[in-house]
Design brief:
single chain, 314 residues, alpha/beta, seven-stranded mixed β-sheet, binds zinc ion
Length: 314
């Protein structure tokens, strides 16, 4: 499978502002030496030597991931504002009979606000499946698309073939993927998803405030969290802030490293970035998370930031 990140922010969309763009340009200009401008290849070398927080961004859109299985239709996790970007990209490759399967972790704004902008749902030639373990998924999604919140309603204007499924605990099969899910500790309830395809395992656990019971070596925990090739995890805060924001429903990157270590994940992707943190702080947190993994003695764990546009391959 291939996983593409369309939105990695938590809580609300977070566009870069002018001061942040100016700060990046100014820091880049300060670094330029005359030799960096000597030729087109020197300029390219200089640009590629810049740190990601100056020559890029983690992005500002909220939670949305696209999974392309080896066989079968596109699977999407959550419909945050990143879904609108995915929709724009899909417009070039939409075919009659295109099919999409959207799994919801939960229905907080940052996980549903892109849905009104998902073009395939308006297209009579497309089928869109919606999944959640909660009852009334249809009613929940339709209720955010009506006057005065949005000019058109789901039931009148989304002319695609929309199908709503309540997950009943049994694994779900979509194409070459086997998908399992479990409840996570989050205000108002939320669910994590585990995707298996042959030997490859991808675990998505967001939103979650990790708790002691998530680390217990039970068969249930182990079969859900264990041995992920890639783990996308809610690591919104620093440890200090996670303590201050106890019960807000999110985890720290340090606890995330502990968790990835406990469950022998091979790659950890920090996710659901705090909107009050700028790129400099988020990339700094990545460095600290890597340092902490080393200090723990977990030299096998690779730690990355979830960045908009990034692809995770298996
Ligand atoms: Zn969220
Ligand atoms: Zn949430």
């Amino acid at each position: 499978m291939r996983v593409r990140i369309w939105g990695a922010r938590g809580s609300r969309p977070t566009p870069l502002n002018s001061a942040q763009v100016q700060g990046k340009i100014s820091s880049v200009v300060q670094r330029i030496q005359p030799r960096d401008l000597a030729s087109p290849s020197a300029r390219e070398r200089f640009l590629s030597s810049l740190p990601a927080e100056l020559f890029g961004t983690v992005g500002g859109n909220t939670a949305c991931l696209e999974i392309a299985p080896k066989q079968g239709p596109t699977v999407i996790i959550d419909a945050g504002s990143g879904l609108a970007e995915l929709s724009a990209a899909l417009s070039r490759r939409l075919r009659p009979g295109s099919e999409f399967h959207i799994l919801f972790t939960h229905f907080h704004y940052d996980h549903v606000q892109g849905l009104p902008f998902f073009a395939p749902a308006y297209n009579p030639a497309c089928t869109v499946h919606f999944y959640s373990p909660v009852q009334d998924i249809h009613q929940i999604l339709a209720s955010q698309m009506r006057h005065p919140f949005f000019p058109v309603t789901m039931d009148e204007k989304m002319r695609g073939d929309l199908r709503f499924h309540r997950l009943d605990g049994r694994p779900l099969k979509i194409g070459s993927l086997t998908i399992r899910y479990r409840e996570l500790n989050h205000p108002g309830r939320g669910w994590g998803y585990r995707f298996e395809e042959g030997e490859s395992v991808f675990v998505h656990a967001s939103d979650v405030e990790l708790q002691e019971s998530d680390f217990e070596k039970t068969a249930e925990n182990s079969s859900f969290f264990g041995n992920a090739d890639a783990l996308v995890l809610d690591t919104q805060y620093t440890l200090g802030e996670a303590i201050e924001k106890f019960n807000w429903g999110h985890s720290s990157f340090s606890l995330g490293v502990d968790f990835a270590t406990a469950w022998q994940a091979r790659r950890l992707y920090l996710f659901h970035h705090e909107p009050l943190y700028n790129d400099a702080k988020i990339y700094k947190n990545l460095q600290l998370a890597r340092w902490y993994a080393q200090r723990l003695g977990n030299l096998d764990l690779e730690v990355y930031l979830s960045e908009e546009g990034m692809e995770i391959t298996f």
